[in-house]
Write a structure and sequence with these properties.
By secondary structure, this protein is of the alpha+beta class. The protein has helices spanning 28-43, 47-61, 81-93, 97-104, 106-115, 122-130, 136-140, 148-155, 157-160, 166-183, 193-196, 220-230, 299-307, 310-324, 347-353, and strands at residues 164-165, 188-191, 201-202, 205-210, 234-240, 262-271, 284-293, 326-328, 333-335, 340-341. The strands form three sheets. The chain has a five-stranded mixed β-sheet, with helices on both faces. A three-stranded antiparallel β-sheet has the order 8-9-10. A hairpin with a 4-residue loop joins β8 and β9. The chain starts with 27 loop residues before the first helix and ends in a 13-residue tail after the last helix. Bound molecules: guanosine-5'-triphosphate and manganese (II) ion (2 copies). One manganese (II) ion is lined by residues 193, 204, 206, 290.
Length: 366
């Protein structure tokens, strides 16, 4: 046993946006367990429970060394009774019995398989399970009506569940840049999402597009999509137009964390390099790509909002609201005390308005 005096104690801020979380995780045994329970809660529409597990996992990710004893966790924020029980189980037995039984459960397995289809969320998966559908075979033979996204998702299931590499993200980035250059000179493309945080793989590739002259970006998305389509790069696309100006509830107070930018959910057809050609001789693969267009005046907020991680974003908004009486969205920052919008042209300025130390993308992996 380790004596009290020998264990390293940690001091960690309670908001994830006050912490530096790199990809270097010293407690993956614990964060894997907590993340799986978070995912299971989300798949069952238990959002509160999901956030609690996500916060606990994020806290463990931010610790500078491996935890070996429960006594090291004394005084740490974000660790509820349930999370502590899971951590204790892993530390003492190597695994959490709750995680193991969840992984084995028929419902969890089915939810994972079904929500692995692009276009299928937890609600749809739950309905199908109640109708006796647990896997793709059963879904294909069920006679269920699938929408366009789901049909495409089912068709490209294996490709879309294969992690996207940084090299593939860069190859798609070049295509997107070419598309944007062809339809409006001077447009800029920024890689956001997990790849901007330095991740080596992702479930999709996220891009933000803008133009240095305000207003020039209007109507850009349909042109970019049309170009990509004409060149045969798209297997699927659904564009939703910008609804920021028409909205009545105020830009900085969105009803959900969904923003109102012109946005395109797509599936790209990416030609493989010689090295990646598989035994099947398929020379291309399907990759999920998100495209978002932002006016330059909102670009800094959009970059911040689309870089993630999801928990880091959630914590930034919570910090802004609870600690600063401000409302942060991917469009703007509103100061409720001064009753005015705060303009910014860089992420650094936004952190400064929020009274937070600047955290670079590579340290937002909460
Ligand atoms: P992987 O793609 O799984 O590798 O991780 P990721 O961090 O890139 O996740 P994802 O592509 O799902 O999202 C990237 C960032 O965009 C995250 O910070 C999300 O919170 C954010 N995001 C995703 N969808 C929306 C949306 O509709 N509105 C806004 N404002 N942000 C979004
Ligand atoms: Mn992503
Ligand atoms: Mn995305």
């Amino acid at each position: 046993q380790i004596s009290e005096a020998e264990v390293a104690l940690f001091s960690v801020s309670s908001y994830a946006c006050q912490r530096r979380t790199t990809l270097d995780n010293h407690n993956s045994n614990l964060t894997d367990a907590l993340s799986l329970l978070a995912e299971n809660a989300e798949l069952n529409n238990e959002d509160g429970r999901g956030v609690a597990f996500r916060r606990a996992a994020a806290l463990m990710k931010a610790l500078p060394t491996q935890v070996i004893s429960m006594s090291q966790l004394r005084g740490l924020p974000c660790l509820g009774e349930h999370s502590l029980r899971v951590i204790k189980d892993v530390l003492e037995n190597g695994v959490s019995s709750e995680v193991e039984s969840t992984k084995q459960s028929k419902r969890y397995k089915a939810l994972k398989i079904l929500t692995g289809i692009f276009g299928v969320g937890a609600k749809t998966a739950d309905r199908w399970i109640r109708e006796g559908i647990y896997n793709l075979e059963q879904l294909r033979h069920s006679g269920q009506t699938l929408n366009r996204a789901q049909k495409s998702g089912l068709e490209h299931y294996d490709d879309l569940n294969e992690p996207v590499t940084k090299a593939e993200a860069d190859a798609i980035g070049e295509i997107v840049q070419k598309a944007v250059d062809s339809v409006l000179t001077g447009s800029q493309v920024a890689l956001t999402g997990g790849f901007r945080r330095g991740k080596l793989t992702g479930h999709d590739v996220d891009f933000l597009i803008t133009h240095p002259e305000e207003g020039k970006e209007v109507g850009l998305m349909p042109k970019v999509v049309a170009w990509l389509e004409s060149q045969g790069f798209l297997l699927y696309q659904k564009t939703t137009r910008n609804s920021y100006l028409e909205s009545k509830d105020g830009p900085a107070r969105p009803a959900s964390n969904m923003d109102r930018f012109e946005r395109c959910f797509s599936i790209f057809k990416l030609t493989k390099g010689k090295e990646q050609e598989t035994a099947s001789h398929k020379i291309w693969r399907a990759v999920r790509v998100d495209l978002v267009v932002s006016p330059i005046s909102q670009f800094a907020f959009a970059v911040l909002g689309w870089t993630g991680s999801k928990l880091f974003e959630r914590e930034l908004r919570r910090w802004a609201g609870h600690e600063k009486n401000m409302s942060l969205s991917s469009h703007a920052l509103f100061d409720n005390t001064q009753n005015k919008y705060l303009r910014a042209t860089s992420e650094e300025e936004i952190f400064a308005y929020l009274g937070l130390e600047y955290i670079p993308p590579s340290e937002r992996n909460a």
